Amino acid sequence: MPSIRPAWRRRGGPAKLESVLTSVIGGSRIPAGPRSYRSVDPARVSEVVADVALAGADDLVAACRAARAAQDAWRDVPPPVRGQAVAALGRLVEANKEALARVVTREVGKPYAEALGEVQEIADTCAFFAGEGRRLYGRTVPSEMPDKQLLTFRDPVGVVTVITAGNFPVAVPSWYIVPALLCGNTVVWKPAEYAAACAEAFYQLVAHAGIPDGVLNVVYADGPETFRGLELALEAGLVGKVGFTGSTEVGSRIGALCGRHLQTPCLELGGKNPMVVTEDADLPLAVEGALFSGFGTAGQRCTSLGTAIVHESAHAEFVRLLDEAARAATVGDPSGDVLFGPLIDQRFADGFERVLGWIGPDHTVHGSSGTGRITAANPRAGFAGDPADGLYYHPVIVDGVGPGDDLFAHETFGPVVGVASYRTLDEAVALANAPGYGLSASIYTTDPAKVFAFRRRVSAGMVSVNNSTSGAEAHLPFGGNGRSGNGSRQSGVWVLDQFTRWQSMNWDYSGRLQKAQMDVPEVEPDLAFRL
């Protein structure tokens, strides 16, 4: 990478990593306050990964002020040069792929193979957006008057405040941070406190890529302080855009807050993602997709399979095959070759316990030798490791769910898959749309007519055919509708409209005032002419 111009060179290198993680504002660590959080390894809850000093609302406001102070200089860096910084970050991520993946596995319990894939997603995102630095195109537009030019430009929105969950602790933040920086914005990032070590590792890579002080600020805070800080920062006019990935409930509050300031946030929220399995589907392939999307990352993805909606003629065989596959899958220590490891944090274990309480007497349970937490008294055959070490749960398949069931209607965020049956494709689409989410949906079929009928009528922002509900690529728009989001999209060129504003300019060089719609040359056709 060529030498960085003095106008935006870093001062003194990246902030030094301390034994207690503290927020980074303007390139400097802030002092630790009285409140703290202890991030532990969910696969070995007795092991501490990081002690985190929690910031307050005023600290988030201070971070937004630091970002605002740095934004003019960063905006003035030519976009192709900003693209070089993004490219450097991608190379650093690739060089540190295994180390970063190990941090992800240790702190959030994601199986190492999946963690490697998550880190690769950052590298892919950087590879895509490095080139977009040379393609932040505007347009020249013909005028209706002579000696006049019309032009359009993309301008950065300013300060972007990004709030992310910890189930994808480094990939999802990169979906916001990389294009936001590429477009000339500065960023204040509030990661999940239970994924603070992952956030710290990612910040260090960004800092070593040559991003200047204040361009990326990291604030470790809990939910209430973050919301209050965001409220204050918006009132002070410091934030140009908010990006949030998390629950539908919190996203609704953030959307309402931003709306009061005439802002439209990027909201990437929860999902209750349906998989329709038709009578002509390849059942073994559908089962493979259901197993991965239902139980990968212990069902803690926004794109995890919620309900498999199976044609009545294939229902019994699908359940039999899925039950067989789930029982045969290895669950346990995420450093090994397992389908899934522990739940991310005790708060999610507690939430999943409540979800298991939704299983009713009309439901039939499959998938494992038990339900609930895996223990010596509630064992699972073939478990890899010592279940007493971590937050491990049995995979659960619940047959017979339908409208009116909490299991059918709500996101579960854990290793549970519901199964419903249908007779007609109209009924399948109605069931797919009934919960009101609209993130991801899939259909397994060999009939193209069913594919396009489903695509046209399902409410999801993303549709997969003969593939699982989970999976994203860096150059494809990602996002949902309804309870899954407000229509914003991450990834690909589509996200550029989130992090830039269009500015139009007209340049009249005629030497006289030409008034639009008034001083326009007219064509005089003979409309009475007939052959």
Give a topology summary.
Elements: E1 20-21, E2 24-25, E3 28-29, E4 36-41, E5 44-53, H1 57-76, H2 79-95, H3 97-108, H4 112-132, E6 140-142, E7 148-156, E8 159-163, H5 171-182, E9 186-190, H6 196-208, E10 216-218, H7 223-235, E11 241-245, H8 248-260, E12 266-268, E13 273-277, H9 283-295, E14 305-311, H10 315-328, H11 346-356, E15 364-366, E16 396-399, H12 406-409, E17 416-422, H13 425-433, E18 440-444, H14 448-457, E19 462-465, H15 496-499, E20 500-508
Parallel strand pairs: 1-5, 8-9, 8-11, 9-10, 11-12, 13-14, 13-18, 14-17, 16-17, 18-19
Antiparallel strand pairs: 2-3, 4-5, 6-7, 7-20, 15-16
Helix pairs in contact: 1-7, 2-4, 3-4, 3-6, 4-5, 9-10
Short account of what is shown:
The protein folds into two domains: 20-270 and 485-504, Aldehyde Dehydrogenase, Chain A, domain 1; 273-465, Aldehyde Dehydrogenase, Chain A, domain 2.
What does it look like?
The chain has 531 residues and is of the alpha/beta class. It folds into 2 domains: 20-270 and 485-504, Aldehyde Dehydrogenase, Chain A, domain 1; 273-465, 3-Layer(aba) Sandwich (Aldehyde Dehydrogenase, Chain A, domain 2), CATH 3.40.309.10. The chain is built from 15 helices and 20 strands. It has helices at residues 57-76, 79-95, 97-108, 112-132, 171-182, 196-208, 223-235, 248-260, 283-295, 315-328, 346-356, 406-409, 425-433, 448-457, 496-499, and strands at 20-21, 24-25, 28-29, 36-41, 44-53, 140-142, 148-156, 159-163, 186-190, 216-218, 241-245, 266-268, 273-277, 305-311, 364-366, 396-399, 416-422, 440-444, 462-465, 500-508. The strands form 5 sheets. Strands 15-16-17-14-13-18-19 form a 7-stranded mixed β-sheet, with helices on both faces. A 5-stranded parallel β-sheet has the order 10-9-8-11-12, with helices on both faces. Strands 1-5-4 form a 3-stranded mixed β-sheet. Strand 2 and strand 3 (28-29) form a beta hairpin. The chain is globular. The model is unreliable at 1-11 (pLDDT under 50).
